[in-house]
Each structure stands twice: as C-alpha cells, then as structure tokens.
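Re: weekly structure request thread

Next one in the queue (370 aa):
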Amino acid sequence: MGNGDSAPDGRFGHEAALVGNRLFIWGGAQRHKGPCRFADRRVIWSLDTTTVRWRKRTARAGTKQDIPPSCVDARCAVIDEVAYSFGGCTDVHSWSCLNDVHALDMQEIRWKRVEVSGDRPTERTACGMCAMQGCLLVVGGYGRQIAGRLAAGAQFVANPEYPHNGWNNQVLLFSPLSCSWRPVHTKGSHPLPRAHHSLTACKEHTIVLFGGRSQRGRLNDMHTLNMLTEEWSLVVLSTHLQWPEPLAAHTTSCLSSKYLLILGGWDQHDTVTTESYLVDTGTSSAQRINFVGHPAMRANHSACCQQCEDDAVSIIVFGGTKERVYSDKCGLNNLVIYRWGEIRTLHTFSLLSIVVLYRTITAHCITRDQ
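Done, posted below.
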C-alpha cells in the first residue's frame, strides 16, 4: 500500500462516506500514543480506493458554527456528493447529545451547518440513518426524552439509571431541499426502541433494520420498512440455525437485492464477536462465515459499499475497536475490503470463505493495525 499522508489514527464511532472511488473518514474517538480522545471533525481523511493511498485534508467552513462539534456515534449519509451528518454524543459521562444537521461538500471539502426550518428531533446518538429517494431516513437512537412528541407507532423507553434519557423507535425524514424534518406515521410490526442498530437501504423502497441495544439488552431481530406504504414488517425466520446472535454496534451492508452481510458488533456478553453472517432476505435465513484471521472482529466500525465494474461489490471496512471503549488500547486503523463477486475473480484475493449460488465473499486485509 502506498502511504501518501500515512494513515488515520485508530478510531471508533467515526463517520465514513464513499463517493466514487474515494472513501472519506472523519470524527469519532481516536487513539494516538495514549488514551482515546474525540477527533477534530475538521480533519478529513480520504482514501483513493484504486491506489489505496490516504490523504489528510482540513475542511473549510464559513463560520465556527459550520464546524460540527467533536463527538462519537454521529451518523452520516450521502446525497448528490454531499455527506449529511446528524446526532452524536459529545460527552459519554453526561450523555450530552446533538440534533444538528451538518453538510460536508465532498468536492470542496467544506462544512456547513444546515439551517433547519420547523421542529427538530430531540438530541440523540447511535441512531440508524440512510439515504432514501433524496432524503435522510432516521430511525431510533438513544438520547433525550421525547414522550409527548411521538408520531403514531413510535415509542420512548426511559433508561432507569438516567430517566431523562432513553431509547426510541421514532422514524423521521429530513429533506435537504426544504431543510425540514417530518415524522413518519408508520404502521405494522414496529421494532422495539433501540440504538446502535444498523439501518440499510436494500431495495428501491425497502429499508432493513437489524439488531441494536434496547432496555432489554442486545437484539437480533430484523425488520423491513416499506417506504411506499410506511409499514413495518418483522422478518419471520425460516430457520434459527446460524441466524446472527444479538448484536449492537455492528454493520449491515447490502450486497444485492437479496443478500446482506453483517459484520462485527458487541454480543450479549460485552465481547466483540468473531462471527460474520450472510443473510438471504429471500428465504429469511443466514449462513455463518468464518474469515481467516477474523478481520470482522471489531465493533463501532464503518462499512461502505462500492459497486465495481465487473458487477462485483466491495465492502470497505475501517476502524472500530476490539477492546472496552475508552481503554488505552481501543481504536483500530486497519482497512479490510470484503468482495462479493463471481468465482472467476478469486485469483485476485487471498482468502476464500464461502460460496453461495456461484458467487463468493472474500476478505483481504490491506493494512495492519498500528
């Protein structure tokens, strides 16, 4: 790998966005010769996925308010080469959270605080967020109490230890055109209030939610949300064999209209799982995958999908942690690329793990943790 500007410090709870062949990393908590600290979100690292070279850049901003505060577990999604960032936790001891929207122009590398019209969501962290039809879709999260402000079907469950904070399953849409939020009045089989779950745009109008943490602990249920009918459906398993264990702070990536790849996360025993799972949404079943060297053994990492020219899909994973959060050993800075493609491409990759319907997933560790 060409070093370019070296590589980002090890970090977790950061944000990542992919535009073309460039992966952008910023924020989160990072480790560098000592305890973890929150990263300055003006510092943007970009990776050329073709040459695998990092470049360190400093984002511009018109005013100080345009720069998002340092935090962990904010969420971002890309619309028209602009990464929109929402939420996050600025103090893990007091659970001070954010509810601002900031936009990062990926061409100019410039931050701008979005002036929102109308009501804003309450402050929250570790929500689920993805882009859907030119809007940002937000589900759930942990943060300030929102009882009395919920749309139909939404709930808030208070944390007994911090009664002003808790988990919710609220569904919200943000329009960059009108710079406004609106609640989505969903129906159907609503998921429990939760945070640290994954939210993945799978088909043209379908969102998949998996896992997370609730008042009851970590979860392994899967729900789909049809944005045309605004209806939730619980995925009824065809078999419990090899179904993912309860997980939080994992990632779920869409390989195709049928397959999802679940990587990493914290399990029910507060340890980082070594397992990975290939989920078949057509049959509501899953297969456990054991990659050589357990490159998926991490939590609070990022995973971005890249469509390749040969009809393959690459999942680019960066960072995360294997240790208890905020220890002096937390924060990874290695880069792992998972590839889902035709068997004929295997000669370019070193680690074969599973073959499904004449397609395969391979994992290749590009850099070693420092």
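Residues 64 and 293 are 44 Å apart (CA to CA). Residues 342-359 have pLDDT under 50 and may be disordered.
Next request, please.
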